[in-house]
Design a protein that fits this description.
With 149 residues, the chain is mainly alpha-helical. The protein has two domains: 68 residues, no CATH class; 80 residues, no CATH class. The protein is built from seven helices and three strands, in the order αααααβββαα. Strands 1-2-3 form a three-stranded antiparallel sheet. It is flat, with a radius of gyration of 20 Å.
Length: 149
């Protein structure tokens, strides 16, 4: 699979020094979290394992986005927007409260904030909208995107 990806995208513009630097920073971060929280948690998933899980998910997302043609992502803009709106409504009623704010959704030992994904999806939706919207008219260029936000 990697061979197919490198053939299609090429590694010419890919600087391996940045990858090494990123891996070093990630390793320092995980080791720091492990060191600081050692012996503090009992019965829950250790913070460094949660961090490793999110690093893995981030790496998978990076590879998917790197391999994907960004034009193909436009097909998923509005369905993803509808889904994240449902998630934001869901968190209002069923979200977990933490530090006085009800904005977390728990999935097993992990929890996440749908609002963080909403920011990314909103960028995708607005990019898709502006790529298709007519170039004239105040209503189309300001009001409709404002309503989407």
């Amino acid at each position: 699979m990697i061979d197919r990806l490198t053939e299609r995208r090429g590694l010419d513009g890919f600087d391996i020094r940045y990858v090494g630097l990123m891996l070093a920073i990630l390793a320092i971060g995980v080791l720091s979290i492990s060191s600081v929280t050692q012996g503090q948690q009992s019965g829950t998933t250790p913070y460094y394992l949660k961090q490793l899980m999110w690093i893995g998910l981030g790496a998978a997302a990076f590879l998917i986005m790197w391999a994907a043609d960004y034009h193909d992502l436009a097909r998923f803009a509005y369905p993803a927007y509808a889904f994240i709106l449902l998630m934001l409504v869901f968190v209002l009623f069923e979200g977990r409260t933490s530090k006085g704010a009800q904005r977390w959704i728990a999935m097993g030992p992990f929890s996440f904030q749908p609002s963080e994904f909403a920011k990314l999806i909103l960028v995708l939706v607005l990019a898709h909208y502006y790529s298709k919207a007519p170039r004239v008219g105040w209503l189309q260029r300001v009001i409709v995107p404002g309503l989407l936000v």
